């Protein structure tokens, strides 16, 4: 199986930053592209 892209969701916590480092290391060994994803939910006020 060939992996071309690795999606790494991140929330800037210590845990997610460590996971991102591991994901980048994995991508380097597999010659894959890294895509970082950070989503933010806008609070509804009313």
From TrEMBL:
<protein>
    <recommendedName>
        <fullName>UspA domain-containing protein</fullName>
    </recommendedName>
</protein>
<dbReference type="InterPro" id="IPR006016">
    <property type="entry name" value="UspA"/>
</dbReference>
<dbReference type="InterPro" id="IPR014729">
    <property type="entry name" value="Rossmann-like_a/b/a_fold"/>
</dbReference>
<feature type="domain" description="UspA">
    <location>
        <begin position="4"/>
        <end position="43"/>
    </location>
</feature>
<dbReference type="Pfam" id="PF00582">
    <property type="entry name" value="Usp"/>
</dbReference>
């Amino acid at each position: 199986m060939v992996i071309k892209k690795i999606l790494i969701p991140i929330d800037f916590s210590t845990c997610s930053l460590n996971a991102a480092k591991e994901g980048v290391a994995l991508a380097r060994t597999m010659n894959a592209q890294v895509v970082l994803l950070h989503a933010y939910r806008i609070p509804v006020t009313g």
